[in-house]
UniProtKB/TrEMBL annotation:
It comes from hydrothermal vent metagenome. This is tRNA 2-thiouridine synthesizing protein E. Keywords: Cytoplasm, Transferase. GO terms for cellular component: cytoplasm. Its main location: cytoplasm. The keyword Transferase applies. GO terms for molecular function: sulfur carrier activity; transferase activity. The keyword Transferase applies. Its EC number is 2.8.1.-. SUPFAM superfamilies: DsrC, the gamma subunit of dissimilatory sulfite reductase. One of its GO terms (biological process) is tRNA wobble position uridine thiolation. Coiled coil: none annotated.
Length: 103
């Protein structure tokens, strides 16, 4: 566990850069994490991020397939929004734990 300054806040992150505490997340934190990854967030990104946060808070396991069936975005759209690791990067930006399906 490490502490990192993101959007002017001291935030505890894992060695992989995922937030330790979901309550430390806000849109500014998301924007800064996305910027580090090279993604500029749009309203559609935030729709996906909020969906992921809701499902994670409910204790549901996340997979690319489940997000693709969510009605928020299809699998192809998820890859467009978060290239080179759609679930990995969307989860990191959403401030949720790394999904078990991610390597």
């Amino acid at each position: 566990m490490a502490e990192k300054t993101i959007a002017g806040k001291q935030i505890n992150v894992t060695d992989d850069g995922y937030l330790e505490d979901m309550s430390q997340w806000n849109e500014d934190v998301a924007k800064e994490i996305a910027k580090e990854i090279g993604i500029e967030l749009t309203d559609k990104h935030f729709e996906v991020l909020n969906y992921l946060r809701e499902k994670s808070a409910a204790g549901e396991a996340l997979s690319i397939r489940s997000v693709g069936k969510s009605g928020v975005v299809d699998i192809k759209g998820l890859y467009k929004l978060f290239p080179k690791g759609p679930l990995k990067f969307s989860s990191k930006i959403a401030g949720i734990p790394k999904p078990t399906s991610c390597v």
